[in-house]
Amino acid sequence: MRIKQDHDRFRQIVRGKIRNNLKQYISSGSLIGKQGNDRVSIPLPQIDLPRFRFNSQDGGGVGQGEGESGESLGPGEQQPGEGEAGEGEGEKALEVDVTLDELAQILGEELQLPRIEPRGEKQVVTERDKYTGIRPVGPNSLRSFKRTYKEALKRTIAMGQYNGRNPVVLPIKDDMRYRSWSTVKSPQSNAVVIYMMDVSGSMGDEQKEIVRIESFWINAWLKSQYEGIETRYIVHDATAREVDEHTFFHTRESGGTMISSAYRLAAQILEADYPSSEWNIYPFHFSDGDNWSVDDTRACIQLLRDVLVPASNQFSYGQVESPYGSGQFIKDLHVHFKDSDDVITSEIKNKDGIVESIRDFLGKGK
Question: Beta partners for 282?
């Protein structure tokens, strides 16, 4: 019991350290490379346990002995970088494994994120076979050896044939028992996240890293809100294509930008695989705000109004500041969707702006 109390206390300390340094973890992106299947290794500042230190008996008390004002009292104090090489181990950083669910909970508490309410009746009914009982008939593959033996044992004892010195029990056909099953239908709230990113020449490595970090935390939160979640990735310059996660964050492209190509591909993916009556849909688009022409921006607005926004719980647009981007697209969205709660925009100037951008996107609880 004491060990459990100590473990719980340690977890509270760890959570406190993570919460105090959450903005630093998010801005640096140091957690993303440390993630496993469902756990993340958190590098924590050293946690020192309080302890007494005793001075030598012949060293005198405080204020006693020779010395000048301001002189160090500690024995053998060295400045960093001084002293000879030694054989002992250096100080190591403490790393603690934390589940993604715990990280999401800390994120939600720190940013005061409301829990997401799935829109309407967007639930997928999943079916699975569940073993619910035992019956006297069935295929051999479902035979229950334990229950068959028990039936044979009861029959043998009831007939007076059981011999304790030679406890051999031979089942007969009437003793056979088989597992029975039934199909269980359970509603499951599902969500799909579609990430779209501008990879034209004006989007550099720093801008892509911002998108990579932000999408990691957005995914962590959404996974904590839904039983099932799928993620799709689209990159675009003048044309759009669907890619895997690694390509999404590491591809190097150049050329002009036609944002409508990404919106059109996203609409095709939703129509083919994710009917809005069954899925909670979250499109996220990241760009520096440059677009090819006013005509293409007009096409984007039309696609948003007619297809993407009506199908989605929320459409999110993040504009990453770039020295080469005009930043015009977010202004166009403000003009056309200024009164809409279904289109959320966020300006991300640098990595320090990621936290507020996450709050912008997830703060509505939609």
Answer: 193
Assigned token pair, 98: 């934390």
Q: Angle at CA 308, nearest 5°, toward 316 and 253?
A: 65
State how far the Cα of 257 lies from the Cα of 240, in Å rounded to an integer. Answer: 10
Chain length of the chain: 366
d(CA 288, CA 257) in angstroms, rounded, equals 10
DSSP structure class, residue 59 = G
Whether residue 234 is predicted with pLDDT greater than 70 in this model: the reply is: yes
Identity of the residue numbered 62: V
Encoded tokens for 328: 């015009």
CB 242 within 8 A of CB 258: no
10-23: pLDDT as tens digits:
556 666 677 777 77
Q: What is the DSSP-derived secondary structure letter of residue 66? A: S
Q: Where are the beta strands (DSSP E) in the chain?
A: 39-44, 94-99, 124-135, 178-188, 190-198, 228-236, 240-243, 280-287, 315-320, 343-348
**Fold designation for 189-362:** Rossmann fold (3.40.50)
Q: Using CB atoms within 10 A of its CB, is residue 219 exposed (0-12), middle (13-18) or buried (19+)?
A: middle
Contact, 320 vs 198, CB < 8 A?
A: no
Beta partners for residue 195, in sequence order: 233, 284
Q: What is the pLDDT of residues 240-253, one digit of tens each?
A: 999 998 888 788 77
Q: Where are the domains of the chain?
A: 1-45+94-112, 124-185, 189-362
